Amino acid sequence: MNEMSQVSSRNSVEIKNLDLSFGAVKVLQDLNLDIHQGEFLVLLGSSGCGKSTLLNCIAGLLEITGGQIWIGGKNVTWAEPSERGIGMVFQSYALYPQMTVRGNLSFGLKNARLPKEDIESRVARAAEILQIEPLLDRKPGALSGGQRQRVAIGRALVRDVDVFLFDEPLSNLDAKLRADLRVELKTLHQRLGNTMIYVTHDQVEAMTLADRIAIMKGGQIMQLSSPDVIYNKPQNLYVADFIGSPSMNFMHGHLENGVFTAGDLRLPMEGYEYSAPQVSDGPAILGIRPEHVVTGELVASCPVQTEVKVELVEPMGSDTLVYAPLGKERFRIRMDGQAKVSPGETLPIGLVPAKGSLFDKSSEERL
């Protein structure tokens, strides 16, 4: 069997048993990841989780300690970055200030000694796709942050590669520009169909851009799945707490015969989809997202009903966030933006345990 036949043609990038250490510090540990052809995969996690390090390993900017990296069916573990068939966009724009936009886009192609006609064609195509044609004769100092980032993306685009790597490309922009460019990136991916690997710590970017999300912690992947699955069926307590703003509410209690008990509350788990065919009784944690706490007229139809005393109210425009103690926990409740509620008042709420996420208290894995 030759090397080419060892890699699935469905996968654009494959990471096999990847290890990276700096001295005695293990940064990435036995990491495996298959990225499908044409997929938009987001590496998501807090600072120091290893997401940018993994991206730099794929790019060839860091020498790995062990394992293999395959791109486009080729083992590129020890290949130079220029030989890997990738285009990379960094957090900083990294543009040459003395060159025009046209010069920045064509610089790498000229170094590669491509024919002049080919260079002009690639620059024109990238400028059209990114809508920066009027900017071609300007220098970076005359551009806004969003325009500079488009140029940085264009510089990767002109390389005409199959795999694009993005290292937090929107983090230096203000909120509105981030939202605008997020839409443009998604449109770009739909138009090109290239494989894109995108690093961010921003949940909104991950949820809106990704076909799949790999949530990382301590150099390992905690969960790899679609945004919908990660949000609604987190694999463990870490993912459940990390994803969502505000984050999931948690109740510490005990599971016995299909009923979760926390203090005076009894929550029958009827209709809940367990991850395993057999689940043992014992200490457990039930997570309920703020939007799944029912208020108003629908409370009467919920299997579990109780009352809480409102502690804090945060008007968010489209939503209103209410904070209230429930037993030993401080619950977050997402209500309609027009909801009239004040600190100190009593608020009837309903809970639907089947919509929650149940975790084993010891392993913190989903039940």
TrEMBL record:
One of its GO terms (cellular component) is ATP-binding cassette (ABC) transporter complex, substrate-binding subunit-containing. Residues 13-243 form the ABC transporter domain. It comes from the Bacteria. Belongs to the ABC transporter superfamily. This is ABC transporter ATP-binding protein. InterPro entries: AAA+_ATPase, ABC_transporter-like_ATP-bd, ABC_transporter-like_CS, ABC_transpr_MalK-like, ABC_transpr_MalK/UgpC-like, Mo/tungstate-bd_C_term_dom, NA-bd_OB-fold, OB_MalK-like. GO terms for molecular function: ABC-type transporter activity; ATP binding; ATP hydrolysis activity. GO terms for biological process: carbohydrate transport. The lineage of its organism: Bacteria, Pseudomonadati, Pseudomonadota, Alphaproteobacteria, Rhodobacterales. Transmembrane segments: none annotated. The keyword Ligase does not apply. Keywords: ATP-binding, Nucleotide-binding, Transport. Pfam families: ABC_tran, OB_MalK.
